[in-house]
Write a structure and sequence with these properties.
With 78 residues, the protein is an all-alpha fold. The protein has three helices and no strands.
Length: 78
């Protein structure tokens, strides 16, 4: 995630429970994927799980980006 996105998240996460939940989920997916990516070999089931995690992480990232876009729009109007 870009630094400006992280700064925007930090500014709004305390007052936006949806953003907070999505961001926590995003971090959890990153940790899980990092753990899997550090394994020398994945079983076929682990590989399927890794791909599913990647898809869920990307879907969540898209939702986070939509929220951040709205905050950027509001900030530019202020």
């Amino acid at each position: 995630m870009e630094q400006r996105d992280l700064e925007l998240i930090e500014r709004h996460v305390a007052n936006d429970k949806v953003l907070e939940a999505l961001y926590r989920e995003h971090l959890d997916f990153e940790r899980q994927l990092e753990k899997m990516n550090n394994k020398p070999f994945l079983t076929p089931n682990e590989e399927m799980e890794r791909k599913a995690l990647q898809k869920r992480k990307l879907a969540g990232r898209d939702r986070i980006e939509q929220i951040l876009r709205e905050y950027r729009k509001r900030d530019s109007l202020s």
